[in-house]
Design brief:
CATH topology: Rossmann fold
Number of helices: 5
Family: Belongs to the SsuE family. Isf subfamily.
Bound molecules: flavin mononucleotide
Keywords: Flavoprotein, FMN
Protein name: Flavodoxin family protein
Number of domains: 1
Radius of gyration: 15 Å
Structural class: alpha/beta
CATH architecture: 3-Layer(aba) Sandwich
Pfam families: FMN_red (PF03358)
Order of helices and strands: EHEHEEHEHEH
Cofactor: [4Fe-4S] cluster; FMN
Length: about 190
C-alpha cells in the first residue's frame, strides 16, 4: 500500500461498544487520507497474561491464544492505535496483558515496534481517561514508537454503546489524532 497501513486494536469486550465505534471513526479518517486500515477486536479472543517464560526471542509469544496472529499484523503495519475502555480508572486488563506481551516479543526479538506511529485512546463513562492514557503511553514510549498529539488528550465520554459518538469534542480530538497519525506516516515513508 503506497501510503501505508494502520492496525487498530479495540480493547473492549463489547463488539459494538463505544471503543469499537470510536476506532471506526479513526479508521475512516485514516482511509480518507489514503491509508489502509484493519481493526482487531480483543472481544474475539481471550488474552492470557505474560508468564515471563522468556521464550519470545523467536519473535513469537509461546502462549497460544491468538496473540501471535495480532503480532504478525502489527509487524506489517506502519501505525498501531490502541483503543481501550476505562475499567476502574485504568485500561481493561486484557489490553494491558496484550500490550505487555506484544512489547516483550518486540524487545526480545527485532524491535519491530520501533518507529511505528500511533497512540492510545481511552473511552469511559465519566472518569479515569487520563490515567489510562498515561498507562498506555508507557507501552508506546518504551518501545521506541512515535506518538503524535491532538488538540486535546485522546479521551471520549460514553457509557451505553453509541453514546461516545455524541461527545463532539472527544470525537473531534480523536479524528484530529488519526489525521496526525496519517500525516506522520505519509511523511516518514
Ligand atoms: C468493569 C468496568 C469498570 C468500569 N470502570 C469505569 C471507570 O473507572 N470510569 C468510567 O468512567 N467508566 C467506567 N466503566 C464504564 C465504561 O468505561 C464505559 O461504559 C465505556 O463506554 C465502555 O466502553 P465499550 O462500550 O467500548 O466497552 C466501567 C465499566 C466496566 C464494565
Amino acid at each position: 500500500m503506497a501510503n501505508g497501513n494502520v492496525l487498530l486494536l479495540c480493547g473492549s469486550p463489547r463488539l459494538e461498544g463505544n471503543t469499537a465505534q470510536v476506532l471506526r471513526e479513526c479508521a475512516k479518517v485514516l482511509e480518507s487520507e489514503g491509508l489502509k486500515t484493519e481493526t482487531v477486536l480483543l472481544a474475539e479472543t481471550r488474552i492470557l497474561s505474560c508468564t515471563a517464560c522468556g521464550l519470545c526471542k523467536s519473535g513469537e509469544c509461546a502462549l497460544d491464544d491468538g496473540l501471535n496472529e495480532i503480532i504478525a499484523k502489527i509487524r506489517e503495519a506502519d501505525g498501531f492505535i490502541v483503543g481501550t475502555p476505562v475499567y476502574f480508572g485504568t485500561a481493561r486488563g486484557d489490553v494491558m496483558a496484550a500490550l505487555q506481551r506484544i512489547g516483550m516479543v518486540s524487545m526480545a526479538s527485532d524491535n519491530f515496534l520501533s518507529r511505528k506511529v500511533g497512540g492510545p485512546i481511552a473511552v469511559a463513562r465519566r472518569g479515569g481517561h487520563t490515567a489510562t492514557i498515561q498507562e498506555l503511553l508507557m507501552f508506546y514510549l518504551i518501545n521506541d514508537m512515535i506518538v503524535p498529539g491532538s488538540t486535546y488528550w485522546n479521551m471520549v465520554f460514553g457509557h451505553a454503546p453509541g453514546e461516545a459518538l455524541n461527545d463532539e469534542e472527544g470525537m473531534r480530538t480523536v479524528r484530529r489524532f488519526a489525521g496526525n497519525v496519517a500525516f506522520l506516516i505519509k511523511r516518514l515513508r
